[in-house]
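Work Package 3 (structural annotation) set out to generate three-dimensional models for the target panel prioritized at the project kickoff. During this period the team completed the workflow that converts sequence records into discrete structure tokens, so that structures can be stored uniformly alongside our sequence database. As a representative example, we reproduce one entry of 347 residues exactly as it appears in the project archive.
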Amino acid sequence: MIAASSTLALVHYLRCQGVLDPRAVERITGQPEDALADPDLRIPADQHYHLWEYAESVTGDPAVGLHVGQTVDPDRMGLVGHVFFNCDTLGEAVTQYARLHRLINESVRLSFEQTGDQAVLTWQADSPGHYCRQDMDRTISSMLCRTRHFIHPAIKAEWLDIAHSKPDYAVEYQELFGGTVRFGCEQTRVAFDRRHLEHPIPHRNPFVYSAVLKQVNSLMARLQSRRTFGRKIRRLISQQMSTERIDADTLARQCHMSRQTLYRRLKKEGLGFHELVEEVRKDKAMRYVASDHYALGEIAFLLGFSELSAFSRAFKRWTGIAPVQYRQKHRAQYPVDAAHPPGRARS
């Protein structure tokens, strides 16, 4: 799930570019534009990423993510942004940003470490299906441009590792960040001179910081509670996928609740049972095909498809390309999930 404030920022950019179609936004996100202003609203990751694809199409700008991130508007910052820019120092701000990142995007993990004379931020998508080139461009671009605007204009990156392949607009990364850039890496990482962490935050307001931090901590507690249930259901679906038919009644009994209660608790997270099954199947499919460890026929069976042709059609619907093409493109990039090995294939 993605904070609706991130979706709204993209919508605002499209309006400024003169290409916004409110009906298309509502069709893609499932929400009218005015509803996106709700600070508690969260948008399914797939819908948010689909909006990025739409944005690239209507703007004709492959680098739209980098360009959206360069737009700095204090009035449109989310709660995490207000925490960040009201900390005492940049070091404290980065630490809070990493801790609270799940409020922005639940499908991407952010970690922060200091090694030697460098400070390194690392973004890792939970699964290949939850990596979006445009959204990652916007994330790292926004992070740098806001820091330069509010804290120190001379801050630049020492180096960048980018998880997606080298795009046609690759030169823009070097121009924007200032450091060495590598593409096709396992994770997206941005390194800075750790001395920047000592920069004080100008114009910080300790009263705003205290009030907003209290609010985001409450949101984090609620999110953690919801994610615990969501992870449990995803895990059960994943475990049963290769051994038996996925059935809501069976899963509900395993959770000691009725099917209606299962549906209701998922709905509170903005999730649907059948959508979860589809999401788990899609993520596993992309991992297994990319790993080159199983034959495509085996993968089809392990994911509950009756025949290879049905799996191939579903895979092309999910990714836009056939499994064979995807395997050639992503060979060995993602390992099979060793923590949840699939069941033994039918002989």
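The chain is about 55% helix and 10% strand.
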